[in-house]
Amino acid sequence: MINFTRIAKEEFEKVLAESIEHQNSEVYIASDIIKNMALISFTRFAKSSSLYFSLSHALSTSIVGLHILNAMRCRYGLIRPAQIVNLMASVLFCNIGVLKGVLSEDASDNQKIDNEKPRFVDQSFTDSSLWPYKSFRSTKFVQGISFLDTNINFEIVSRAIEYSDFFGRQTDISADVGEIAKYVRAIQVITLMSDQNYQRKMVEFYLSAKEANLIDKDIFKDLADFRKKWVQYFWERLYPDVGEEIMLLRETTEGRAIVSQMYSHL
Most buried residue among 66, 155, 156, 201 by CB atoms closer than 10 A? Predict the structure, then answer.
């Protein structure tokens, strides 16, 4: 039987070793922490039923996150271990709340979606149906894992989780939200736009958002309309959130490849 979690972990650690790991002893310690974080994340996402928020997507976003960190190292000469841990924790866990049963309070058909008691969630839908609540649930998940809670700055990570969703019900981002939150949001957009199977990924994204009732019918009438208007939507709504990060990625060869792939889809 193929162990997809192990394959994802090995691919993640390979990119980690090529990007930020070999700097100094403090970064080595930070790298060990995010290796364990990646295993926690990938193990959960291996069970995902969501078309879009899958193990593959979790791996892709984490790899883009590593390339962002490497570009920061090339531009500034050094990245602090705290930056590494907080950024990668935010990337690895900002979407984990979409998974049913991921919280200790979840039970059978009831899922924890707010500060009230767990509520019934129709199991005939995929995990994408929890998209509107994933920020709350992701934050709760991080709080519930002692290894995560003790190795991160919770205020920074929870803020990044909240602002990572560029297509949810609260999509606006304030100017003073913080550097890591802006990076994490941009990583979500860049991962989608640069995916090698971009056309398939867009369909998965649309169907997942539709299942979660997040499609604005005044903007996108159906899938065909979504495909037709998405590029314009990107330039008008999303590019302001990723412009600086695109420039940052151009600092490295790997980053330029990501940007090139992204622009080829536009």
Answer: 66
